[in-house]
Amino acid sequence: MPVDLWVWGAFVGAIALFLALDLFVFHRDAHEVSFKEAALTSTVWVTLGLSFGAVIWVWQGGTAAGEYLAGYLIEKALSVDNIFVFALVFSYFSVPLAYQHRVLFWGVVGAIVFRAIFISAGSVILKEFHWTIFLFGALLVFTGIKIAIKQHDDMDPEKNPLLRLLRRFVPVTNEYHGQKFLTKIDGHLVATPLLAVLVVVETTDIVFAIDSIPAIFAVTSDTFLVFTSNAFAILGLRALYFMLGGLMYRFAYLKYGLAAILVFVGGKMLASDWVKVDIWLSLLVIGLLVGGSIVVSLLRTRSQLPDAAAMAHR
Question: CA–CA separation, 7 vs 186, rounded Å?
Fold first, then answer.
């Protein structure tokens, strides 16, 4: 369903307002985000995301609402994979807990901008070159298999090409200077380690976007629904990180659920010309895969010591 430009403008304006309140009101001063604060903020973001789904239902009907919710759930589930990587990056660079929110804030801003670009490009490509739907489907199936067998600790931030480029052209200090990404030393502008961390986080999210955006296009071709479901899931990413970052060891089997989701939606995309899967059936399958993998993870890790969590978070 075509969406008027003023609706797009209103939604983007609302996102800008939410981000401004977050940066200049709630997190104006650097501080360590507590579990209670993160849980409350996460609840607010999830409520907003689901409430927007209700708005879509009233405005565009049940099918559109189902497509939005499926996209939101896919992106939210894949965000947990991002959280594990963010924890590894922060640990590698020894980022103080008080500064982590600032990195994630600008990481989210960049993620929304880049995903808007990717979604626009993806929409045009799928519309103009229908055969690319099979390419995206194959990519999702391949990515799902890769997620099932990969190890997160294989990641080495030092191999990041953009980080190498940054260090080549901009001097980077060894010490943090508060929440600053850039500072002056002896009259010369230099980057702080916080900027290096932001580069790695942003690059990582772009890589994740290559997986998640085609996955959402597998459940809806509506650009507005793809963008809004992505945006609401991403906006809650920071709170989810501070709430679950220290508990990632409890989600040991979630990656298999995520892998199965990507294989499912990839297969759905590959067969889309011949088989039409009802969106509510797709939503049910996605929900069962996410919920089932979480339940299995919690049951299998209930006897593990919490030390692993502290290590993953710090």
Answer: 49
* Token code pair at residue 263: 């294989």
Residues pairing with 183 in the sheet: 190
Domain boundaries defined on the chain? 5-148+212-313
Q: Which of 137, 142, 82, 141 is nearest to 115 (CA)?
A: 82
Partnered with residue 189 across adjacent β-strands are: 184
Task: Please report how many Cα atoms fall inside a 13 Å half-sphere around the Cα of residue 290, on the Cβ side.
Answer: 18
Is 27 in a helix, a strand, or coil?
Answer: coil
Residue 196's alpha-carbon distances to 90, 106, 123, 165, in angstroms, are: 11, 13, 32, 10
Q: pTM here?
A: 0.86
Both structure tokens of 28: 């104006």
Give the residues across from 185 on adjacent strands.
188
Contact 229, 75 (CB under 8 A): yes
Q: Do residues 23 and 235 touch, judged by C-beta distance below 8 A?
A: no
Q: What are phi and psi of 274, to 5 degrees?
A: -120, -30
Q: How far is CA 288 from the centre of its chain?
A: 20
Which pLDDT tens digit goes with each residue over 155-201? 677 778 888 888 888 888 888 888 889 888 878 889 998 999 999 88
Output DSSP code: residue 281.
Answer: H
